[in-house]
Specification:
The complex is a heterodimer of chains A (699) and B (195). Chain A is α+β, with helices and mostly antiparallel strands. Chain A contains 15 helices and 38 strands. Chain A has three domains: 149 residues, Phosphorylase Kinase, domain 1 (2-Layer Sandwich), CATH 3.30.200.20; 207 residues, Transferase(Phosphotransferase), domain 1; 312 residues, Methylamine Dehydrogenase, Chain H. In chain A, a hairpin with a 4-residue loop joins β34 and β35. Classes of the chains: A alpha+beta (699), B mainly alpha (195). Chains A and B meet through α1, α3 and α4 of A and α6 and α8 of B.
Chain lengths: 699, 195
């Protein structure tokens, strides 16, 4: 398999992977449902790579359909449609590779959820047969299903209408500032207790069933109580007799599930993972393949949890399912006991300190010596530079719902924001008010960059004429425009001395302008690829920039060509920052890796860390050297979408001096679009693709 | 005009071209035109309000003329050369068509064609996503691109593609599969998209 040197697949494994893919396709062609785990039983080390390839093939399966002229869905459901007799579709609740979920009104005005799956005629029949098993299932903690219909290749499944999921609940709790850790943990455990009962019911049926996709988004609320959602359940049931590694979510998958041997205790592993994630703890690290291997071979990292909780979770995460708890309820029960035990600890701590206070009379040095012997409380680590107290900023109407909100912080600590339409707005944090720029409401701007001296901000236009506007930050008016680009201006930098402006465009151009004369003094044009990020070197005599084909270049201003620092690859770099006072550059890749690159070509690039989630944007605070890192989807190894939507999109604070992550926030539920520090470094702002803008306190 | 509906007809046609039957090349050209219409139709389906765009048919006609001109100027002497030129031009034409129409609609003040980040879970749903798709094919390695062109743009079966490229069906099958894998990777990396 020659892949232009870009494939992560090791050369020695290629032939074997080809054979595995051949075997898979042959089985499918014969009408079988092959099992990835069984096919890889002689080469389990190839399973993650194999699953990844299958996922990528699944993503382009529509091409096969078009080639084979398989009929595609002709009439997608619309609001007002009566897709099944008696039920009127009202509003789309969600959609994805699986189909669509609609809120609908049934007979008597009862509101329900209808899931519509496009399966094609043949698959519809298969699913219909499997669904008959669901009819007998009734439990207060399983989402109630009341009917199934087939209509012109659509499979429609009717269920109770949930008010939201555990993932939604977590976000709401954070948004409402009710995130007292102890209160949230108690509430979470109460919900998991409900879910555990539902799962145990499935596991102890005469013919046990495995949910197979337990995660926060599948734990739903009806009437204030938690119920296990049906999506994974149905998928599992459809192939109940053939265990396989399809359909599960990698982040929550038990090791045996990855090998296609799921058992009821696999759901316990996923439930334990749900608990950890909703407390901001990641027991296993890495991206796609590394994560799968970590689930199969690594010990969980349970730092941040108390000793009793960690003991419970280690058992739930045991690699051997038979060593886990006998039921999900037993595990949750022990977690509740662990929390009760922890609550008594502060009293003991207070007593210790009261004694120490008394001992103070004996002399400060003795007290210091005694205090030094007290181990740090691992459950509440003291982290410097944390982003705390997230406040969602109410947006003016033209910005509401914008997926592409770009942010920049101005010297007055005001915030400048661009919406999808490119209209510019200014936010005054002390008054929580927005004001639209007086000029250029019809101009589409897409990228902002503040000049180091703070008196000017530059805005790149996303539509014709693709100019770069220079704004005066005090008058908030456009003072000059820089023209010449023929595509969307995606990246801008201003040299440290404020004398030069560099731009990179989707028109395949790099341009450098003299900010004194306003003239373009150097350009690289005519490239067929788009440029994504650009930064000046320390002396501003050269630029470093990244292209859509994964390459990263270094070019001296005035030279005709660039030097390639990173070769062509499928990994793109949406994050690029220069560490202040150095010619070291930090790059954030779609593979989740944070690289540091020195212009001294003798030095190899170094991987600082792997966030396991694609990096979408970064922002460096020049004074502290702290880097905000925003995340996107995770590459998953199986399922219908190769980009797993993890539910949460953390923002990391990375210390470029120590090379360590000092803080991770789990708050956003969509890809991070833009990050910015306030000029005084006391606040940070983030925006995501749901159009949410959040203000953080930096402590 | 619908000339060929199945790969069997394409196979018959290839036989005629090989035997240098009179008019066979023109029939091959007509086949490519028909494929172009089908593929362009898919593109149009990504805009529900395309009926607003009165010039869409004119634009399609222009691309057909361009394709016709390329084939007649270059006068390919083998079936493989003919298909390579024709399919490459079709790919370029479709890419330009999707970008031009997207820009044209924007100028007319119609709503933005992109309402969401590109998804590779399914067929592209906007004009810009289609442009990205055709662009991604352009960047495939040569062997995979040639195979992809024949199967997707040319509407050929794997056996016919193998005959034209003079390789085994197994090789075609593997190239097609690798092309799909690389395409999935390329389109995933399109995010974030902007307009």
């Amino acid at each position: 398999m020659n892949q232009d040197g870009n494939s992560p697949i090791s050369p020695g494994s290629l032939d074997r992977l080809e054979e595995l893919l051949d075997a898979w396709e042959e089985s499918v062609a014969q009408g079988q449902q092959p099992d990835a785990g069984s096919l890889c039983k002689d080469c389990p080390e190839l399973l993650p790579e194999f699953l990844q390839l299958l996922a990528q093939l699944r993503k382009t399966a529509w091409l096969e359909k078009q080639v084979a002229n398989e009929p595609l869905p002709q009439n997608s459901p619309n609001a007002g449609d009566v897709i099944v007799p008696g039920y009127v579709l009202e509003s789309l609740l969600g959609s994805g590779g699986f189909g669509q979920v609609w809120k609908a009104t049934g007979p008597g005005g009862v509101q329900v959820a209808l899931k519509c799956l496009w399966l094609g005629e043949q698959r519809t029949r298969l699913e219909w047969k499997a669904l008959s098993q669901l009819k007998a299932l009734r439990h207060p903690h399983l989402l109630g299903l009341f009917g199934y219909w087939i209509s012109q290749g659509w499979l429609v499944i009717g269920s109770e209408l949930a008010s939201g999921s555990l993932a939604d609940k977590y976000i709401a709790v954070q948004d409402n500032q009710l995130n007292n850790h102890s209160t949230w943990k108690s509430e979470l455990l109460a919900h998991l207790k409900d879910a555990a009962e539902g799962l145990d019911y499935l596991h102890h049926l005469e013919k046990p069933l495995i949910h197979g996709d337990v995660k926060p988004a599948n734990l739903l609320f009806v009437g204030g109580r938690c119920k296990v959602g049906d999506f994974g359940l149905i998928r599992r049931l459809a192939h109940a007799d053939i265990p396989q590694a399809e359909g599960l979510t990698l982040s929550y998958a038990a090791p045996e599930s990855l090998l296609g041997n799921a058992v009821p205790a696999s759901d316990q592993f996923s439930l334990a993972m749900t608990y950890c994630h909703l407390l901001g703890v990641e027991p296993f690290h890495g991206e796609n393949i590394e994560l799968a291997q970590a689930h199969m071979h690594s010990e969980p990292d349970l730092a941040g949890l108390n000793t009793q909780e960690a003991m419970v979770l280690r058992r739930a995460f045991d690699k051997q399912p038979e060593k886990r708890y006998p039921t999900c309820s037993a595990m949750v029960s022990d977690l509740i006991k662990a929390q009760v035990a922890t609550k008594t600890k502060p009293m003991r701590s207070r007593r210790v300190y009261q004694v120490l206070l008394g001992l103070a009379l004996l002399g400060p040095s003795l007290v210091w010596a005694l205090l030094s012997t007290i181990p740090a409380n691992k459950s509440e680590p003291q982290i410097a530079y944390s982003l705390t107290n997230p406040q969602t900023i109410a947006l003016p109407t033209p910005l509401e719902g914008s997926k592409l909100i770009a942010l920049e912080s101005l010297p007055s600590n005001q915030l400048m924001a661009l919406g999808s339409s490119g209209r510019a707005f200014f936010y005054e944090p002390s008054q929580q008010t927005w004001q639209e720029a007086e000029v250029g409401t019809d101009v589409n701007r897409c990228y902002l960059r503040l000049a180091p001296e703070g008196n000017r901000v530059f805005a790149g236009q996303g539509k014709t004429p693709f100019d770069v506007e220079e704004w005066d930050t005090s008058t908030k008016k456009v003072t000059r425009t820089f023209s010449g680009n023929t595509g969307l201006v995606r990246c801008i930098d201003i040299s440290k001395d404020g004398s030069k402006l560099a731009t990179g465009s989707y028109g395949g151009e790099i341009r450098v302008y003299d900010l004194i004369s306003g003239q373009c003094i150097w350009s690289l044009t005519g490239n067929s690829f788009q440029f994504q990020t650009i930064r000046f070197t320390q002396n501003a005599e050269a630029v470093v920039y990244s292209a859509e084909d994964g390459r990263v270049f270094f070019s001296r201003i005035g030279n005709k060509h660039g030097t390639m620092l990173i070769p062509k690859s499928p990994i793109q770099y949406w994050g690029l920052e220069r560490i202040p006072s150095t010619d070291r550059f930090v790059l954030g890749g779609t593979d989740g890796k944070l690289l540091v690159l020195e212009l001294d070509m003798k030095k190899e690039k170094e991987v600082w860390l792997n966030l396991g989630q694609s990096i979408t944007t970064m922002a460096l605070h020049p004074a502290t050297g702290l880097l905000l890192v925003g995340t996107g989807d995770i590459l998953r190894s199986e399922g219908q979408s190769s980009w797993e939507q993890p539910g949460f999109y953390p923002v990391y604070v990375f210390d470029t001096k120590s090379g360590k992550v000092v803080n991770k926030t789990v708050h956003h539920t969509a890809k991070i679009r833009s990050l910015v520090w306030s000029q005084d470094g006391k606040k940070a702002y983030s925006s995501d693709e749901n159009g949410k803008v959040v203000e953080w306190e930096v402590r | 005009m619908k000339v060929f509906e199945s790969s069997t007809n394409v196979r018959d046609l290839l036989g005629k071209v090989t035997q240098q039957e009179a008019g066979a090349t023109d029939l091959l050209f007509q086949h490519c035109m028909e494929r172009m219409r089908i593929l362009a139709h898919r593109l149009f389906q990504s805009r529900k309000d395309l009926h607003l765009f009165e010039e869409s048919d004119d634009l399609l006609q222009k691309t057909l003329v361009r394709l016709h001109r390329a084939i007649h100027i270059l006068k390919p002497s083998t079936t493989r050369a003919f298909m390579t030129i024709a399919l490459q031009n079709m790919r370029w034409a479709l890419k330009d068509l999707s970008r031009d129409m997207h820009n044209h609609l924007d100028k007319l003040g119609h709503s933005s064609a992109i309402a969401k980040a590109p998804s590779v879970d399914e067929e592209p749903s906007t004009l810009l996503e289609w442009a990205h798709f055709h662009d991604a094919i352009e960047k495939l390695p040569q062997e995979e691109r040639e195979t992809f062109d024949l199967i997707y743009y040319g509407g050929l079966g794997q056996e016919e593609a193998a005959e034209i490229l003079r390789v085994s069906t197994r090789t075609i099958k593997r190239r097609w599969r690798l092309a799909r894998i690389l395409l999935a990777r390329a389109l995933d990396n399109e995010w974030p998209s902007m307009e």
